[in-house]
Write a structure and sequence with these properties.
mainly alpha
Length: about 130
């Protein structure tokens, strides 16, 4: 069976965790659905582990710290994507969506920081 250049690129993307860009909304929707399915499948394992592991307020803190760090890094990367999109004069609708995502990401990091502070405060009060 001969492989086309596209299938080789898809295989390489899958192997190395690269993300492909698709100009077709149907393919983009399929990719988003596949990503969602994969994450929800893995989430069952994470939920079981987190439920068993997080028995008191202080054991929650390292998990939330880890998530906040990853979200913050991703949001800062996304800010770079937004800056690049602005500098290249990409369409306003895309800029607005990126701005919304960046703002939401920053809000999430604030909520996670508040959660971390709450775990410390609750532990100190006990």
């Amino acid at each position: 069976m001969s492989l086309t250049r596209r299938s080789l690129m898809d295989a390489a993307a899958a192997r190395f965790g690269w993300r492909r860009a698709y100009g077709d909304t149907t393919r983009a929707d399929a990719l988003l659905a596949e990503q969602t399915d994969t994450v929800y499948t893995e989430a069952a394992d994470h939920a079981a582990l987190a439920t068993a592991k997080n028995a008191d307020v202080l054991t929650v803190q390292p998990c939330v710290l880890d998530v906040r760090g990853r979200v913050l890094a991703d949001v800062l990367y996304l800010e770079g994507v937004l800056t690049g999109a602005r500098n290249r004069g990409l369409p306003g609708e895309l800029i607005e969506r990126l701005e919304d995502a960046v703002d939401h990401g920053h809000e999430l990091t604030v909520l996670l920081a508040d959660t971390i502070r709450t775990t410390a405060a609750l532990h100190a009060a006990s």
